[in-house]
């Protein structure tokens, strides 16, 4: 039997290539034929990672003909999230940062070779926006079935509190393995995974319950930064997969300055190597403390203490440090690698 050709994939808002890395890790036979991003620094990193530089420019200048020439089977889209965040203005489609995504939706309706599959990711809040309504309306017009999810890394054993919205869409001629959840928004990934050892209830829990089944943060830390002699299996697998070699990381390079502890200690999210949850890291991590990500206790002489029971005077004794860039990557990269791309 002749092997079918790989999927041809377009990657919009490609950033540094998280979606492409996830696609490659999923085992699906696919080829990213083009990526698009307007940020030149992100494109530098993408080119370093994959040997291919994304098309740099405003997506709003694309035409249906431009996209038709790729004859792509699947599109991956992670459009700007700022129009939908809780802390933003929540202008939705009226926000200029949403215009390019709306342009893409409009182009789909005028294409001779529209995609057969879409994968869309965004923040929680997108699902109640008018942009979301436009997305579903266009997909319905083009005879797509959809399955929508709000999922957290905690549901997959990753100690990272970062729920996100996902939409899977396929043309009606292609069937989802679980058509009973078509046109539904789910908060559990049971129909996505091949893991039959976990029950529905083991996924469908609150964050406190999910922490019990998560790997500890220790498993995602660089060995040198916590004084271990051997890297964890997770780190070893990651390095083997991406060809990285161990780097020397001195924890004091990322020590939280005492001045920040004295001023913002009460606002810090403090976690221990044994903790099974940390907060979402943002681009302002290292520059700001409040709401940008967790900080790690490195003192081995102190037992974990709930944040509410910590005295300000004792915070300086915890040996607080920021997570290193590689540790942030180790934690963040494991969530997009969920086997959503295994759906046929």
UniProtKB/TrEMBL annotation:
<feature type="active site">
    <location>
        <position position="81"/>
    </location>
</feature>
<protein>
    <recommendedName>
        <fullName>tRNA (Cytosine-5-)-methyltransferase</fullName>
    </recommendedName>
</protein>
<keyword id="KW-0949">S-adenosyl-L-methionine</keyword>
<keyword id="KW-0489">Methyltransferase</keyword>
<dbReference type="InterPro" id="IPR001525">
    <property type="entry name" value="C5_MeTfrase"/>
</dbReference>
<dbReference type="InterPro" id="IPR050750">
    <property type="entry name" value="C5-MTase"/>
</dbReference>
<dbReference type="GO" id="GO:0005634">
    <property type="term" value="C:nucleus"/>
</dbReference>
<comment type="similarity">
    <text>Belongs to the class I-like SAM-binding methyltransferase superfamily. C5-methyltransferase family.</text>
</comment>
<dbReference type="InterPro" id="IPR029063">
    <property type="entry name" value="SAM-dependent_MTases_sf"/>
</dbReference>
<dbReference type="GO" id="GO:0032259">
    <property type="term" value="P:methylation"/>
</dbReference>
<dbReference type="Pfam" id="PF00145">
    <property type="entry name" value="DNA_methylase"/>
</dbReference>
<dbReference type="GO" id="GO:0008168">
    <property type="term" value="F:methyltransferase activity"/>
</dbReference>
<keyword id="KW-0808">Transferase</keyword>
């Amino acid at each position: 039997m002749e092997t079918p050709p790989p999927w041809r994939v377009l990657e919009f808002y490609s950033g540094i290539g998280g979606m492409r890395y996830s696609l490659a890790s999923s085992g699906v036979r696919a080829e990213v034929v083009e990526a698009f991003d307007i940020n030149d620094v992100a494109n530098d990193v993408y080119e370093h990672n994959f040997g291919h530089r994304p098309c740099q420019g405003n997506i709003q200048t694309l035409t249906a003909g431009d996209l038709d020439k790729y004859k792509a089977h699947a599109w991956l889209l992670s459009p700007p999230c700022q129009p939908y965040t809780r802390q933003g203005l929540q202008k939705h489609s009226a926000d200029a940062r949403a215009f390019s995504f709306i342009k893409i939706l409009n182009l789909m309706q005028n294409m001779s070779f529209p995609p057969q599959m879409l994968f869309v990711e965004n923040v929680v809040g997108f699902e109640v926006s008018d942009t979301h309504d436009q997305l579903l309306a266009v997909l319905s017009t083009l005879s797509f079935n959809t399955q929508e999810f709000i999922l957290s890394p905690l549901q997959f054993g990753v100690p990272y509190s970062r729920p996100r919205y996902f939409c899977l869409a396929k043309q009606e001629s292609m069937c989802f393995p679980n058509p009973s959840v078509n046109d539904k928004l789910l908060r559990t990934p049971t129909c996505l995974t091949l893991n039959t050892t976990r029950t529905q209830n083991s996924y469908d829990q609150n964050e406190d319950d999910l922490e019990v089944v998560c790997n500890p943060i220790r498993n995602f830390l660089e060995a040198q930064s916590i004084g271990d002699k051997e890297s964890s299996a997770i780190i070893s697998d990651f390095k083997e997969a991406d060809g990285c070699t161990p780097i020397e990381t001195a924890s004091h390079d990322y020590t939280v300055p005492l001045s920040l502890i004295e001023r913002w200690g009460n606002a810090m999210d403090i976690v221990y190597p044994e903790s099974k949850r940390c907060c979402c890291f943002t681009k302002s991590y290292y520059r700001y403390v409040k709401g940008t990500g967790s900080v790690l206790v490195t003192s081995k002489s102190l037992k974990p203490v709930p944040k509410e029971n910590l005295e300000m005077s004792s915070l300086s004794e915890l040996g607080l440090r920021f997570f290193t860039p590689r540790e942030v990557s180790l934690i963040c990269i494991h969530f997009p690698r969920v086997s959503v791309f295994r759906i046929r």
